Backbone:
């Protein structure tokens, strides 16, 4: 299914941006995400058969809404990019927002592009505050790219854009709202560590007692002390501990696969 308004939203021949968002049951987020990129030449949503109101909400705000089966993160994002009318793609997640300052910077960057792609810092809102410490910040994400020179890989988790050309950096932030609460945070860790362990195992990696004993506390020290989690009070402590738990669970699941 697709929805394509007849209005021409851009001037042909003038550099611009197509925003792509892949979704699955994101009714709580999709409106705000799309409204944050209302400045873009077009907005494209590719939905993996949501059972909530995601598609209905998106149809009122996006130029294209397509529903299809889930082929994996990278494949879905590449498909979304293939639908775009513009060559510059901004890939956004439904739980992310583009600030006005970043929007202006993106438009300036694509008007006279000096690189094939750009990394963008991302700041996460969790436990009532913006976290600008730990491994979570600046958390640069390569999200703005020329699709003629880049495409998404097929990694099971933490997929990325492979670019044939130089990569620049922008200073404006993507705002990230990934978790409803700590329970949701834990559920996400469980899901992503399963994918990460499977990818590591497929790549020939194995885990012993040393990895499970050494890497998690090292991750906590890096997050809490070296990367400033201590400055963020209780949220900084929790995020540092959760990041260390992620590392432990990833290696524990990898060891289980190799048992």
Residues:
């Amino acid at each position: 299914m697709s929805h394509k308004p007849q209005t021409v939203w851009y001037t042909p021949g003038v550099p611009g941006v197509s925003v792509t968002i892949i979704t699955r049951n994101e009714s709580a987020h999709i409106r705000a995400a799309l409204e944050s990129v209302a400045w873009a030449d077009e907005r494209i949503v590719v939905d993996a058969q949501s059972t909530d109101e995601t598609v209905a909400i998106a149809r009122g705000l996006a130029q294209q809404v397509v529903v299809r089966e889930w082929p994996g993160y990278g494949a879905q994002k590449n498909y979304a990019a293939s639908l775009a009318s513009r060559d510059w793609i901004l890939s956004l997640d439904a739980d992310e927002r583009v600030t006005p300052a970043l929007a202006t910077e993106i438009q300036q960057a694509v008007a006279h592009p000096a690189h094939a792609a750009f990394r963008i810092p991302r700041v996460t809102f969790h436990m009532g505050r913006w976290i600008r410490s730990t491994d979570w910040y600046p958390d640069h994400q390569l999200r703005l790219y020329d699709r003629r020179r880049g495409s998404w890989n097929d990694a099971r988790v933490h997929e990325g854009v492979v670019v044939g050309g130089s990569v620049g950096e922008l200073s404006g932030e993507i705002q990230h709202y990934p978790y409803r609460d700590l329970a949701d945070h834990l559920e996400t860790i469980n899901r992503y560590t399963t994918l990460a362990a499977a990818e590591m195992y497929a790549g020939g990696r194995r885990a012993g007692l040393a990895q499970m004993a050494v890497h998690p506390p090292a991750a906590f020290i890096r997050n809490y002390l070296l990367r400033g989690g201590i400055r963020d009070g209780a949220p900084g402590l929790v995020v540092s501990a959760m990041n260390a738990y992620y590392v432990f669970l990833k290696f524990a699941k990898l060891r289980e696969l190799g048992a």
